[in-house]
Amino acid sequence: MKIKVLATGGTFDKIYYDAKSDFHIGDPMSGSIFEEANVTFDYEVESILKKDSIDINDEDRAIIRQKVEQDSHEKIIITHGTDTMVKTAMQLMDIKGKTIVITGSMQPARMRISDSSYNMGVATTAVQLLPAGVYLAMNGLILDPRTTVKNVTLSRFEEVS
Amino acid sequence: MKIKVLATGGTFDKIYYDAKSDFHIGDPMSGSIFEEANVTFDYEVESILKKDSIDINDEDRAIIRQKVEQDSHEKIIITHGTDTMVKTAMQLMDIKGKTIVITGSMQPARMRISDSSYNMGVATTAVQLLPAGVYLAMNGLILDPRTTVKNVTLSRFEEVS
Amino acid sequence: MKIKVLATGGTFDKIYYDAKSDFHIGDPMSGSIFEEANVTFDYEVESILKKDSIDINDEDRAIIRQKVEQDSHEKIIITHGTDTMVKTAMQLMDIKGKTIVITGSMQPARMRISDSSYNMGVATTAVQLLPAGVYLAMNGLILDPRTTVKNVTLSRFEEVS
Amino acid sequence: MKIKVLATGGTFDKIYYDAKSDFHIGDPMSGSIFEEANVTFDYEVESILKKDSIDINDEDRAIIRQKVEQDSHEKIIITHGTDTMVKTAMQLMDIKGKTIVITGSMQPARMRISDSSYNMGVATTAVQLLPAGVYLAMNGLILDPRTTVKNVTLSRFEEVS
Question: Contacts from A111-115 at CB under 8 Å and sequence distance 24+?
Answer without folding.
Answer: A111/C16, A111/C110, A111/C111, A111/C112, A112/C110, A112/C111, A112/C112, A112/D112, A113/B36, A113/C110, A114/B36, A115/B36, A115/B37, A115/B38
